[in-house]
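Batch 3, record 17
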Amino acid sequence: MKFRLVKKSRESYARAGIITTDHGVIRTPVFMPVGTQATVKTISPLELKKMRAQVILNNTYHLYLRPGEHLVRSAGGLHRFCSWNGPILTDSGGFQVFSLAELNKITPDGFYFQSHIDGSRHFFSPEKVVQIQRDLGSDIFMVLDECLPYPCEYAAAKRSLQLTLDWAKRSLQIFNATKSTHGYDQAMFAIVQGSTFIDLRKECTRKLIEMDFPGYAIGGLSVGEPKDDMYNIAAVCCDLLPENKPRYLMGVGKPEDLLESIERGIDMFDCIIPTRNGRNGTAYTSEGAIVIKNATYREQFIPLDENCDCYTCRTFTRAYLRHLYQAREILVLRLVSYHNLYFYLRLMENARKAILESRFSAWKKQFLIRYLKNK
Amino acid sequence: MKFRLVKKSRESYARAGIITTDHGVIRTPVFMPVGTQATVKTISPLELKKMRAQVILNNTYHLYLRPGEHLVRSAGGLHRFCSWNGPILTDSGGFQVFSLAELNKITPDGFYFQSHIDGSRHFFSPEKVVQIQRDLGSDIFMVLDECLPYPCEYAAAKRSLQLTLDWAKRSLQIFNATKSTHGYDQAMFAIVQGSTFIDLRKECTRKLIEMDFPGYAIGGLSVGEPKDDMYNIAAVCCDLLPENKPRYLMGVGKPEDLLESIERGIDMFDCIIPTRNGRNGTAYTSEGAIVIKNATYREQFIPLDENCDCYTCRTFTRAYLRHLYQAREILVLRLVSYHNLYFYLRLMENARKAILESRFSAWKKQFLIRYLKNK
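Prediction for the assembled complex:
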């Protein structure tokens, strides 16, 4: 993996770059559609191409449990398994062990946990998670990290920091001692933790920089902390992080969060919002989010977003989509998910264009006035 | 609507024809994907075009209840509402009143029933159902009929026959006294009933022929009767029906049923099997049906059907599809439904080609040897 910084904004920390992987290039800022179980829910790989998705995210915890990394390895890796031939990033499973599984014990060695599917017992160590991701064959993968809840005591966050740094070091050792399972290049990113404590975040960032990872993620945010904390931590970390490496804000967020974070120096995002909220009937449009099941849309024979040229908006009316939702038809889950992902991807493309043309902050302001006007 | 008989088989009653509607032509024999609630479940109109669907079926009972024919009328009719610009056939709702709703009373006037959705009370008469279908704006629609259960007493079937004929006549009167709501041509087909009693079927067929409908459906089959009864009744009706009008066997069936019925003179089919069974994980292939969730497919890195060139088969392995099924991912419902519809549509295309090339019976035999070999 290589990263090249193409443009730095003068008026903010916004930047545009290019990540090159063996499965293709990624132009940043980038939003990565989430394909938890080796599928972006309801969406086909062909549709991902059509909406110009550049990279998708798969989930190590989920794929380890089902179908298992050995099956994916037999299939020739994730790209072949799910027929997505562009870049794939996997997260380490640390977040899911906390949020989804039953965590039985955490030791300096790793996590002991029980599967959310069948209660079976498992163990994740930094080393094991590297090997799983070797077998899955993602282009970019994450070190195992401890994701803290919010709020979190300072002492607990400080203790955890040491674990995070220790695990990052061990991850790097095993990474360097092993080879790609499937022959192509893989890069491993570190994850900055430290809860909402600025000094811990700074310390974590500095020590991870010393270890010289090819990219850095900021984890443990979007877990309930105030938005200003999130933006502030993103800014503090970006300020320290080396310019020539990509920065990935994990699990964020809403359209406005993405723009605020880009302005603070973030390059990469992933979030379930466009797909999960899409399945729940929320569509993101240039004039804000709308809840398509509401009766107000019953006879609106206009698209979800009149400024959108996605398949859903070119083809269907709000009235029809609402009917599908009322009638519990699966098609609407696809159509709204597709639109939402398309909306997010265009937002990132437009942000990049604005950065390249030195007008990011003005563009962002214009977008947000319209986007937030009904709030 | 016009029907032109293009070719009659010499060795059987199989035939190829062309139905022309204001929304395009339909080459018969034809399978019509079922889009109950103005959507073929999980499948987009674009995909229907790609799989070369010629005509889809929508359901009067369902659309009357939700979203209501008035909303569809406001939308400009079904084609605009659901963005399918090819021909649409609607069935009359008679079958659903029996199978789905709570039927409260049947009188010479019509059906009193309660909605399966909310228990609300409704009334369907032949006249009302014609008006609903005028507003829905299907290209071909059906008269209201009484669909009998199987088995059925002879006396009950005989009584019902009179109602069917009486309602067909009333349907024709109201049809001729009304105009298309949306400006384009609509044709109304009669439905032959008579349970499994050959003499009643013959009587019904003859009397409906006297009324001179532009097409004839055979209803009340595929409701539990032996297959031989179904094939036999199809043959008896086709033998009487005029050559220059299309014949539609309602609600049938499995691939082998379609071929047997084509051989007996049927032109049109609809069935939920490819989509419903697709969602349940059954895929139809050139070597028979397979249940993709079975463990035997866990590591089969081959397509559902190696002889199929649909998107699903060109792109995904059985192992991946099984994973999606195990992981309860919506994408698999789409992918298997798509494959199954593609399989059915290709089966009909191949049948037509064989008829045109005077080799239908040999082709059918070859297909069935392979298709049924694992049974």
